[in-house]
Amino acid sequence: MTPAGAALEAARAIEAGGEDATLRLARWTAGYRPQAGLPDEYLDAGGQARGAWPRLLDRLGRLPETEIMARFVSAERHIRDAGISFRIYGDQREHAWPLGSLPLVIEAAEWRALSEGLIQRAELMEGILADVYGPGRLVSEGLLPAAVVAGSPEFLRPLHGVAPPGGRYLKLYAADIGRGPDGRWRVLADRTQAPSGLGYALENRMVLARTFPDVFHDLHVERFPAFFQAFRDGLVAGAERADPRICLLTSGPYSSTYVEQAALARYLGLMLVEGDDLVMQDGRLHVRTVSGLKRADALWRRIDGDYLDPLELNPASRLGVPGLIEALRNGSLVMANMPGSGMVESGALAPYLPAIADRLLGEPLRLASPRAWWCGDPDGLAHVRENLDALTLRPAATPQRGAGRDAILGPHALAAERERVVAALRDRPFDYVGQEAAPLSTMPGWERTDRGLRLVPRPFALRVFATRTAAGWQVMPGGFCRVSERENVDPIEMRLGIRAADVWVLSEKPVDTRNLAQQATPRVRRIAGHLPSRAADGLFWFGRYVERAEAVIRLVLAHLRSVGDAVATDMTGDADAPTALRIRALLEEWGAASAADLPTAPLAQEALIGREVPGSAHAHILSARRNAAGLRARLSGEAWRVLADLGDLLALDPARDFTESQLLGRAERALSHIAALSGLTHENMSRAAGWHFVDLGRRIERTINTCAFALTFAHDEATPDCLGVMLALTDSQIAYGGRYLQGVALDPVRDMVLLDPYNPRSCAFQAEAIARHLAELPAIASDGIPEPQRRLASRLLAEFRSGEAADFDAVRMTALEADLERLADSIAGRYFPNGPHALRPEKLAGLA
């Protein structure tokens, strides 16, 4: 039972005793005590409720606690079904997105003041970048030490003097903020490199607004669409072409924030690409697609600037595009944010910001940072040494990750740590910044107890976003909030023990939902955008792995039924019978079982759920999910839910011993899930290039598997038992029985499973589908000569159309298997970025 499910049971017990809204709210808030010296969002220094919190809690208090908890259970289920997840840095596992139960609520008036300060801060960062990559007046006038600029690893010299296409270094600015001891908001860290969290803020909003639609509407919560439309428009400001192609550059599915990147690409209609998808040609950036090279006009990068171009920046990078900086020099590519913009994240810059703001903006900072001293400055070093026990010491040369993650020394450090830091300050003082202690303020969070819910104060950090538009900066009315589940843990980054919270900015009047996004009507089109080669590769192998899992499951079912249900299937019921031995041998050959002589149940268990067995059904589904992880913008939510259910169905504890009956039931349900997934693929996917590649993968893999089945169970000396298994494996028993009344025979079985164009499981049916798919895919050559993959597919189709059942002996079937593998390689060589020799995602995971 999930935590929300357990709390739901406790809530039911309370509601059974009777409790009205007043008593419920009193129970929630009884004992709520903020920590001494820390500002709190709910209670002010005098213990009075403040801001928008009374409105929120009063509205929630009208709901029975059982209903509230039931909604949480529904939200958790939706998060799991939708595949919303995150990775902890350095961890390959995906964790379900930990959405908190309460939003952070802020009144409109307070948000307006906060937005003004954020816009001023964004303009300041833009001005600093324009100066340090341009005239350098801040250094020459003594407002900024040269060492702070030149010593930063994020100051990229090849970008000096390069004017940003579109005129702006920053298209998106973010800041981590929290309340200081005086109750005012202050900036804990600036985010200008490649700010993350925007997609998770969107996911938080979609889930919580779906969970509490009535509360969301009644409190007049500001909406997001206008901001995202403005952000999309700002991405292409300055592009050369009127109908620009926008790409979101990711480091790939193993990025800790890949899920949010895919969500943003889907929501904003961007092309999600990796470095290998891109290439420079004629001074312009292009995307490798199945239709050839297509120009990219704007790039929203989600990798660090230093990794963008191995020719001019970091030569060890495998994430970027050789020669990319040239596209910035000649103005043919708009980028968000410009490489090198991460320099203003440096902690060494903080002590000089107030003076720089006076110089560049002519006014003091509205959103200040905790006071800081750079130890490369003699006065700053002297202050840090004198007050070392009261300060937090941080790196100066690396961008700040937040208010606590990169701390080298805190006020409560051990003596040994202090000695080490004193030595470091003596040897390399310019590497450090001293900062006054900045404990985070708190907000209410629900704690689930045996008596239901109660409110407790929890530390939080809020990330807010601003985008540059033609009319100036626009702030998103909300943000991305991280809340700690414990009092003494700073929620600086997403990790275990940290929950996310939606941010509700409450309007003073009802929100007009008629014109949320002020946008021009898009031009009507029916042709989908071009499919990147990498996406085609992932879709193709997604289809192949699902089909491989199905083939293994059908083999397991055939074995369990032939051994345990002989009367019903007219078989011997002997685990050592020739038919059963052939099934066992094929499972071993495919790597689905470690040995063919295992007892029936252990063998079936290995083939279904074996985690360390590379050919098991579970392993193939995991491979399919890894491929699908790169395709989140292309698969429907229903398909994700079925895939998640299928993974859970096969994710059994391998240490347990399951009975044959249990395994049989599990295999049958798994087969039903695969059938549902296939149906969703056919019914929900647009008939664009992506669908062709998914179905191509399945058709080719199914034909290969059917040839293998025929070699094993429809050979020249096949027994009725073997032929019965052959029909079962190809799901053709009903069709065969309706056509032939005298029982199974070799040639009729071969004809039905190999040559019958009306049987959707036959090789001939697959060959016709393969030929149609390839005919629909774009051809690069315009000479009228079919490309190699089309010629090979035509030969295979002709062989199945013109052949006779008696001709398909072992030699011919073996040759057909080899031709099908060559066809798959030919498709890969034509359409995929690294051809047939590309490492599959599961191999990449093993190398990481």
UniProtKB/TrEMBL annotation:
Pfam families associated with the record: Alpha-E (PF04168), CP_ATPgrasp_2 (PF14403)
InterPro entries: ATP-dep_Glu-Cys_Ligase-2, CP_ATPgrasp_2, DUF403
Domain DUF403 stretches: 531-832
Top-level taxon of the source organism: Bacteria
Residues in Circularly permuted ATP-grasp type domain copies: 103-484
Signal peptide span: none
UniProt-recorded name of the protein: DUF403 domain-containing protein
Organism the protein comes from: Methylobacterium trifolii
